[in-house]
Amino acid sequence: MSKQIGRRIKNITFRHNNIVFIFICFIIQCFV
């Protein structure tokens, strides 16, 4: 159970890592 959930979370974070990185950069640019 926990291993499957961990794999799912890893897959989701791997897919959305680019979007999150761009979002964080956008927030930093807004503050700076």
- Give the H and E element order: H
Distance between the termini: 43 Å
Q: Describe the main β-sheet briefly.
A: none
Mean pLDDT: 78
CA-based shape: rod-shaped
Transmembrane segments: 12-31
Keywords: Membrane, Transmembrane, Transmembrane helix
Can you walk through the features of this model?
With 32 residues, the protein is mainly alpha-helical. The protein has one domain. It is built from 1 helix and no strands. The radius of gyration is 13 Å and the shape is rod-shaped. 0% of the residues are buried.
Keywords:
membrane, transmembrane helix, 32 residues, mainly alpha, single chain, transmembrane, 1 helix, 94% helix
Describe the SSE topology.
Layout: H1 2-31
Brief summary of the model shown:
The chain crosses the membrane at residues 12-31. Keywords: Membrane, Transmembrane, Transmembrane helix. This protein has one helix spanning 2-31.
